[in-house]
Structures are given as C-alpha cells and as structure tokens.
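Blackboard transcription, Thursday session:
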Amino acid sequence: SAVISQKPSRDICQRGTSLTIQCQVDSQVTMMFWYRQQPGQSLTLIATANQGSEATYESGFVIDKFPISRPNLTFSTLTVSNMSPEDSSIYLCSVAGIIYNEQFFGPGTRLTVL
Amino acid sequence: EDQVTQSPEALRLQEGESSSLNCSYTVSGLRGLFWYRQDPGKGPEFLFTLYSAGEEKEKERLKATLTKKESFLHITAPKPEDSATYLCAVPNGGGGADGLTFGKGTHLIIQP
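(Written on the board underneath:)
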C-alpha cells in the first residue's frame, strides 16, 4: 500500500481565514480523494481529484468553499476557505489501491476553527 | 441512495470474549464491501475487501464475512489492543474508482 503524508497534522485557525492542506503520496496514483470527519462522526466524501482534470464534488460541497488542486500524480491540496467553527473537523486524503476501489488513507489534518 | 448501517454503535467486551459487529448495506450492485480500523487521532487502516456473498477473509483475530444484505466482523478472543472504531464502507455508484460511503462505525473497547 502507498505511504501517505499530510501537512499540517493539526491547526487552529480564526474564522474567516483559509487553510490549505497538503497530501503527498510516495508513488504515482490516478485517483485521490478528500474526506471530512466531523467530531464523533464517520467519514464523508468531499471530492474526487484526478490529475489533469477538475475535481468532482459530492452533494453539499462546492468548489468555492473547498478548492482542490492536483498538479501531479503524487500530490494534492485541499483548501478550506472562509472558515467557520462548523468547519472544525479532521480532513483526510486517500488514494485508490491497485485492487479496484480499495482505498488507503493518510493520517488526517485536525482543524479547529475559533 | 446507497446506505450503510453499523451496529452496535459501541461494544465493551472482556479480554477473550468473542463477538461480532454488523454492517448492513443497501446498494444497487455491490462492487465491494470494505472494513477499516480507526484508532483515535489516526486515519482509517484498511483491513478487508469482500466482493461476493459467501466470501470470508481472516486476519489474526478478525474474520469478515459477507451475505447479500450484510457483513459481519467476527472478533475471536480479543485483546486490549483490538480496541478501536471499526468502519465498513461501500463504493459510491458510477463506475471507475469511486469514493466510499461509510457507516458510522462501531466503537469497540476490550477490557483487560
């Protein structure tokens, strides 16, 4: 399985500001995914990021709030824009494995918005 | 809409006390059911993929089984280090490599 790292591991931000989260993979992957895990909740898919194309967002998530970049096959960023306390969550990236649909997750970024 | 329901929400066992966790799903054409383990403050760790009814997979004290409507994660003679939240998930529809829809998880505590 791929080794996935995320930066930062945690951050505390003021409302109205933006934070960019980085996801780095140690091998080239086609599909990368971004999830949100709100306190005490399970994971919810935000968007799918393919290299060379626009990210595909799930219902309830929009590009203006969560812009995503995917400049190459080993890296992606998720920006949480104009943050409010409701954005306080763990944000996780994942990659699809060699076997169809299996996914492997990074360690997550714990975001607290004051 | 695909749905994944896990039960119980929480389970407390004594060390060595075997039990099972349930994952019920409703999907239009199953393309895999996935089990993950998540420790506090960490990302989910992949455990198993099941593709067809009757399939079983084992790893140490864990065994996952699949029927047409649900999956079970059996834990045999658990140890305190098995304490974690166990999540099941199914691929979203649409073809290709898809994002996953997760259940809410079962929070498992194994007491020494």
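Lecturer's comment: Chain A touches chain B through 28 residues (CB under 8 Å).
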